[in-house]
Amino acid sequence: MTIPFDELKARLLANPEVKAEYDSLAPEFEISVELLKARLRAGLSQAELAARMGTSQSAIARLESGQMLPSTKTLLRFAEATGSKFHIRLSAA
Q: How far apart are CA 57 and CA 46, in angstroms?
């Protein structure tokens, strides 16, 4: 029997401990989503972006997967390579 992803996610997030951990990872995944959108908007493959940034395709994959938090320097290089503008915003909670 297969459980649809949305149903499984809802079940897991019903556990307060799982929900707290999931929520704590939200900023990292927001960054990865923005990086992916910037690359796609620029029409670049991971390999093409890596060449522009002077890094490896696997490094780009790690950035886009949310496995690591990039430095400000990396974010600036990513923005330049994708023709994007880099912004930092802190808003009221």
A: 5
- Separation of alpha carbons 12 and 32, rounded Å: 22
Query: In this structure, is the dihedral angle defined by the CA atoms of residues 71, 89, 52 and 37, taken in order, positive or negative?
Result: positive
Q: What is the pLDDT of residues 24-53, one digit of tens each?
A: 888 888 999 999 999 999 999 999 999 999
CATH 1.10.260.40 fits 5-82, yes or no: yes
CA dihedral of residues 21, 92, 36, 33 (deg, nearest 10): 30
Nearest to 81 by CA among 67, 1, 59: 59
Q: pTM for this structure?
A: 0.78
Q: What kind and span of H or E run contains 13? A: helix 5-13
DSSP 54: T
Encoded tokens for 6 = 């949305």
DSSP SS3 for 70? coil
